[in-house]
Amino acid sequence: MSAEDEFAKEIAKQLPVKAAYKDAIRPAARQTGEMAEDIIKAVRLALFPIQLAAMAQDRFRRFVRHAVDRVPVENRVTPPAQIVGPVLEAIRYEPEGTAIEEMFSELLSTSMHEDKIKDAHPAIALIIKQLSSDEAKILQAIASAPRLLQLVLRFEFRGDGLATNSVERTEIPTEGLVFPENAEMYRDRLERLGLIRFDAFKSMEPIVDGDGQQTGGYNFFVIKFTEFGLTFMRACGTPPVVTE
Predict the structure, then answer these.
(1) CA dist., res. 188 & res. 211, Å (int)
(2) Could you tell me the residue ranges of all domains in the chain?
(3) Averaged in consecutive runs of 10 residues, what is the pLDDT profile of the chain (244 residues)?
(4) Is the dihedral angle over the CA atoms 236, 114, 241, 199 positive or is it negative?
(5) How far apart are CA 81 and CA 87, in angstroms?
(6) What is the DSSP letter of 52?
(7) pTM of the full structure
(8) What is the DSSP letter of 142?
(9) Which of 74, 116, 143, 159 is most buried, by the most CB atoms less than 10 A from its CB?
């Protein structure tokens, strides 16, 4: 057996091998050995074919151990291979100690907790891979806010009858962002990823000129997580404080 295969097996052994309750009651429940083999294959595919230096190997050991230690022993179940593989593959390229790495770690913990595994949707790892550290910080700030954050957009009619839009006021936090000037683009991306939505909380207020003609208006929104966004944040360890 190659050194790479030995390391994959070592990492896989850190993960729990115990069927989730729903799997255990099935007549054709899979055996422990089969589940362990699935995990080893997932780890092998995620980490190789590359040769990991000793420092990189230590990083993977720490990452997996941290995720496992977060789950009480009595609640540990085998994480799905489709979560383990993408998570370990992704952190190969993610600097240690970032908000993104912590999201991956929390997702791995969720996937091996019998009471939380329902939130470990396979798409979540793929979405985390698409996030910037700034976007991760925005999601965490929205989730930890004590009330729903607001967004006010101003629109003005142009001569061709169409309207231009601009942000009049936003409570989306920009402090601590690496690129605060990208806040509007981040907001748009998080909505397109299906994580957040904008719900109107009061009627549009018109803007009128001196002749009483409407020249534009203000639209008022609160920022909410979608149903999938709520699942995403629970799986990543930051369930929203307020949802309605």
Answers:
(1) 36
(2) 3-130, 139-235
(3) 73 80 49 68 72 76 93 92 90 89 96 95 96 95 95 89 87 91 94 97 93 93 97 96 82
(4) positive
(5) 10
(6) P
(7) 0.86
(8) H
(9) 143
